Amino acid sequence: MSGIVECVPNFSEGRRLEVVEAIVAAIASTPGVKVLHRTSDYDHNRSVVTFAGAPEAVLAGAFAGVRVASELIDMDAHSGAHPRLGAADVVPFVPIRGVSLQDCVELAHRLGQRVAHELGIPVYLYEAAAQRPERRNLADVRRGEYEGLKVSIHTPERAPDYGAPQVGKAGAVVIGAREVLIAFNVFLNTTDVKVAQAIARAIRQSSGGLVGVKALGLLVDGRAQVSMNLTDYRRTPLHRVVEMIRSECLRYGVAIARSELIGLLPEDALLDAAAWYLQLHDFTPDRLLETHFRTWRDSL
Q1: What is the pTM of this model?
Q2: Domains and CATH numbers, the chain
């Protein structure tokens, strides 16, 4: 298998930065891997690392990150605003160039087998790698979180896809394959988390809202936050999400204070938003100066 795969693991640590540094170092030291971005949040108590490379290198880097996280993070001592099942909470593989989604499914299964066998951590498979239809949605897999899993893992419906049905201090890992998504958060000018929760219910697909939008209402940095994953940004672009949140804010007498991006996003998602807000109805990427310079450079 050749080509480029992206991996975006989420780790349940955003406060002890020395632990985050150790995890990132383990990933970055893997030959053939390039760490592209990292972000940590204190209130979520969570860090997201984005790295890429050839499939075999990315597989090795993902295992290295899971291994160090399992050694340094004790889920019995963990608390944070974001739902989580384990130290290395979720590990998705994303096809970027020269690989298919099915190739990433195979990587997910191989990583799951290795994590279960070598680290003794139970593994759940989600999205395209899911072996059960009820486990495609990450929120369904993570329901009950770490504390609930310790009680329910012995039941047939919570049996892991790989590994023994027992939970240690590293919790469980959810591993999968998916297309590119945008992790995007909007902060409101209120401390009332119930407003953020109501807006999240209004916009997320599971509640009858926007296609491909997953959303939670949280309290982060002293503000109500609508925390989102946009899993199909072409069908539901960024600007549509922002404008629906803005509309819902009017119901509660609040407003958008700011937004933040977690990890990376595709260039065309920003171009779509820019064209919409500027009302550039005839805009195409070839109107960008940089597009022409890239084409010229590639032709040399």
Answers
A1: 0.90
A2: 4-177 (3.30.990.10), 182-265 (3.30.70.670)
